[in-house]
């Protein structure tokens, strides 16, 4: 059986193949050439550099690059050129996605201290966890983070990077300023997404939009319609299959309501908690 990324893509009208190359193809040849340049001139530039193009963020011979607003470990130039000169969209591609949502927030959201005690620490710590594992922020929707791991930026192990993000949060709870854990749930899924240029903000990665079943179903996993508790991750069979390891945790069969055409009718998600982390890490070591 093929993995999700080996499945045949659907035909998407008017997509730009250059966008496919940027977000979903391997950039090893490009990176090798850039790394050779950096090796030769590295002593003249900062070691603090973009993880994709390796351009330094500062240095005497290379113009300083601004950091990407969706992941500051990358520069803003890698996708800016595409959006400014070749606006368009990708085809539909399977892409690992993550949702992190505050549990029970509807009951306390109107508390006057909620912004400082919950929202701001939640945003800061989840964003750091996402960036630590080469993920990109899609958006914050209230107190839910939505992120993705496009292969062109996050690498060939992008599905593992998504899983590592969830494992990291399960072991390092999100906390408020008083050190009290903020209850969150995590959803992980790999499914079709399409990245496109909005055209309204060419300066940063925020000028790109993301749509598709991958991000929608991932977000559904952490919603109120799927019963569950705090500090558990719902990880789909698709994601485990993409990584190539045995699924861990009891399985839930989930059928989203009001599902759109082209989205999966049934999702099989495994409930993973902190007690499962060592088992998953063992499987990851065995598969490497």
Structure description:
The protein is α+β, with helices and mostly antiparallel strands and 288 residues long. It has two domains: 14-84, no CATH class; 93-287, Alpha-Beta Plaits, CATH 3.30.70.1230. The chain contains ten helices and eight strands. Strands 1, 2, 3, 4, 5, 6, 7 and 8 form an eight-stranded mixed sheet that branches. A hairpin with a 2-residue loop joins strand 2 and strand 3 (144-148). Helix 5 packs across helix 7 (158-171). The longest helix is centred in the middle third of the chain and has 19 residues, at 114-132. The protein is globular.
Quick one: overall form?
globular
**Unreliable spans:** 4-10, 200-206
- What string, H for helix and E for strand, traces the elements in order? HHHEHHEEHHEEHEHEEH
Hey, roughly how much beta strand do the residues contain? 15-25%
User: In the residues, how many domains can be counted?
Assistant: 2
The overall pLDDT average reads: 79
Number of helices: 10
E-strand count:
8
Major beta-sheet overview: 8 strands, mixed
Q: Determine the CATH superfamily of the largest domain.
A: Nucleotide cyclase, GGDEF domain
Bin the helical content.
Answer: 25-40%
Rg from alpha-carbon coordinates = 19 Å
Supply the CATH class of the largest domain: Alpha Beta
End-to-end distance, in Å? 20 Å
* CATH architecture group name of the largest domain: 2-Layer Sandwich
What would you call the structural class?
alpha+beta
- CATH-defined fold name of the largest domain: Alpha-Beta Plaits
């Amino acid at each position: 059986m093929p993995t999700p990324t080996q499945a045949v893509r659907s035909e998407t009208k008017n997509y730009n193949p250059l966008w496919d190359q940027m977000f979903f193809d391997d950039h090893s040849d490009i990176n090798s050439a850039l790394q050779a340049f950096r090796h030769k001139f590295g002593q003249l530039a900062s070691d603090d550099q973009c993880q994709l193009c390796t351009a330094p963020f500062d240095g005497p011979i290379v113009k300083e690059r601004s950091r990407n607003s969706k992941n500051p470990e990358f520069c803003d130039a890698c996708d800016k050129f595409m959006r400014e000169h070749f606006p368009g969209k990708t085809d539909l591609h399977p892409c690992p996605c993550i949702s992190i949502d505050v549990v029970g927030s509807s009951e306390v959201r109107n508390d006057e201290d909620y912004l400082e005690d919950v929202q701001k620490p939640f945003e800061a710590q989840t964003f750091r966890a996402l960036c630590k594992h080469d993920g990109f922020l899609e958006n914050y929707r209230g107190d839910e983070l939505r992120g993705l791991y496009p292969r062109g930026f996050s690498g060939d192990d992008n599905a593992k990077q998504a899983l590592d993000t969830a494992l990291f949060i399960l072991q390092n709870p999100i906390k408020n300023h008083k050190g009290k854990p903020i209850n969150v749930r995590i959803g992980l899924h790999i499914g079709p997404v399409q990245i496109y240029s909005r055209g309204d903000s060419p300066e940063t990665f925020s000028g790109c939009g993301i749509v598709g079943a991958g991000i929608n179903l991932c977000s559904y996993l952490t919603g109120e319609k799927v019963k569950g508790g705090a500090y558990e991750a719902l990880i789909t069979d698709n994601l485990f299959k993409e990584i190539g390891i045995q699924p861990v945790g009891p399985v839930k069969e989930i059928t989203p309501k009001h599902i759109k055409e082209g989205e999966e009718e049934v999702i099989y998600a495994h409930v993973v908690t902190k007690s499962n982390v060592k088992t998953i890490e063992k499987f990851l070591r065995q598969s490497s």
